[in-house]
Amino acid sequence: MRQFDLAPLYRNTVGFDRLFSMLDQMVGVDAAPSYPPYNIERTGENAYRISIAVAGFTDRDLTVEVKENTLSVRGERKPSEERKVDVLHQGIAARSFDRRFQLADGVQVVGAALENGLLHLDLVRETPEAKKPKLIPISTNAAQTIEAKAA
To answer: How many CB atoms lie within 10 A of CB 63?
Structure first.
């Protein structure tokens, strides 16, 4: 496992505390749960899709929740009362899970669909008008412009 010292970055940056704390948390990524497997795809300039393999789960067994900047997907397979069978070999994992994803500011979950054993979550990054770049006109006579704004 690699060790990264982020201390020099803390000294030279302002307002990136959350980013660095997330990087610190990723140090233990080898111990992170790997069930269920998932893909993260970019489907457009500001659109993404998370696909999670949830074979054996129905829509009633799954919960998708967004709280603050965390997307949580929980799966708990409820036993089927009408289908009482003795399982001789269980190769398809059906254990409960709780998978979490950290979302960047402005990323919204716009849809969820269960299809062919995959849960697809569609996300869109929406940039607020206040954060979009804007052009500032340049005046050739700065002293007059500043005086006009002050008045």
So the answer is: 12
pLDDT in tens, 5-47: 666 665 555 556 666 666 666 655 555 567 899 999 999 888 9
Nearest-angstrom CA–CA distance, 17 and 20: 5
Quick one: 53 exposed, middle or buried, by C-beta within 10 A (0-12, 13-18, 19+)?
A: middle
135 within 8 A of 141, measured Cβ to Cβ:
no
Q: CATH number for the domain including 56?
A: 2.60.40.790
| Coil vs helix vs strand at 22 | helix
90 or 11, which is more confident?
Answer: 90
Domain limits for position 70: 7-78+93-128
Provide the pLDDT for residue 150.
62
User: And the tokens for 7?
Assistant: 């201390």
Burial of 119 (0-12, 13-18, 19+ CB in 10 A): buried
